[in-house]
Amino acid sequence: MGNHDEGDAEALPYPDASFDATVTMYGAMFAPRPDVVAAELKRVTKPGGLIAMGNWTPTGFIGQMFKTVGAHVPPPPGMPSPVLWGVDEKVRERFGDGVSKIETTPRMVPFAFPFSPAEVVELFRVYYGPANKAFGALDEEKQAALRKDLEELWAKHNQATDGTTSVDCEYLEVVATRA
């Protein structure tokens, strides 16, 4: 196994121009200050290097899941939605100067679980940070309402018919070249 470092997407623990490629899949998009994240990604990438991101889109399934959760537990005031990183114009605006080229491509990733949508919601409640936090902020009655809405969302988008769960989730692939 290679080394792995833990760090803060808003204060990466590396010198300037450290990497030929800087990659974040569904990670840096959750940091609270997108402008700081964009500046850090550019800072640690060598000129001519690549910055690659995978970011959930607002219109895709995970974006819809966040919207459902947000209807029960509003996000903190002043905090931009993480799924704005899944919007082409926003990504271009955030990177602005410092990149010579940006390509964005909507892509799909399949989520497949060997159990029912209700069990998927329970898995997310226990193990997925944003869902776990949302449920933890609610009393028992409101947790039941959130669970019901999430189960309906997963069931509505479920393509499996055999008791398992299969949902396609859209993300925006971002590949930027550091100037």
Explain what you see.
The protein is an alpha+beta fold and 179 residues long. It has a single domain, classed as Vaccinia Virus protein VP39 (Rossmann fold, 3-Layer(aba) Sandwich). Helix 1 links the parallel strand 1 and strand 2. Helix 2 packs antiparallel against helix 6, helix 4 packs across helix 5 and helix 4 crosses helix 6. The longest helix has 18 residues. It is elongated, with a radius of gyration of 18 Å. The chain starts with 18 loop residues before the first strand and ends with a strand. The mean pLDDT is 96.
Short account of what is shown:
The protein has helices at residues 34-44, 61-72, 88-95, 117-127, 129-136, 140-157, and strands at residues 19-25, 45-56, 99-113, 165-178.
Radius of gyration: 18 Å
Shape: elongated
SSE sequence, one letter per element: EHEHHEHHHE
The CATH homologous superfamily is termed Vaccinia Virus protein VP39
The percentage of residues in β strands lies in 25-35%
N→C terminal distance: 32 Å
How many strand segments? 4
CATH class annotation? Alpha Beta
Helix content: 25-40%
User: What is the CATH topology assignment?
Assistant: Rossmann fold
Count of discrete domains: 1
Q: pLDDT under 50 segments (min length 5)? A: none
Structural class per helix/strand content?
alpha+beta
Average pLDDT level: 96
Number of alpha- plus pi-helical segments = 6
Layout of helices and strands:
Layout: E1 19-25, H1 34-44, E2 45-56, H2 61-72, H3 88-95, E3 99-113, H4 117-127, H5 129-136, H6 140-157, E4 165-178
Parallel strand pairs: 1-2
Antiparallel strand pairs: 2-4, 3-4
Helix pairs in contact: 2-6, 4-5, 4-6
